[in-house]
Please model this.
Amino acid sequence: MLDNLKVSHKDPQEVTKFIIAMGRIYNKKMPATRGKVHNYLGMDLDHSTNGHVKMSMIKYFNKVLEAFPEKLNTTATTPDLDYLFLILKKSKEKLLDKESTRHFHHSVA
Model:
């Protein structure tokens, strides 16, 4: 399956040829956006300044935080704690239910 490509070239005609070729292979019209600013996989990519690109995921992170079903209100100095992947049998923490697990995976994957 072909999905979510970011293609660029100094000659815009080369990009057009590539889109047409992919459309022939996958037998459909390939949607495309052109210009200096794009959203790609949650990243805002701004090529407005020649020779530079500005990247941001702030809009994406805000969307994830707004959509997440429970309030996230704790902090950690590092996500790499010794017990990160351990599930303690006597832990008072509950595992996520299936719907919350699906939502969490969708948000961070």
About this structure: The CA atoms of residues 38 and 45 lie 5 Å apart.
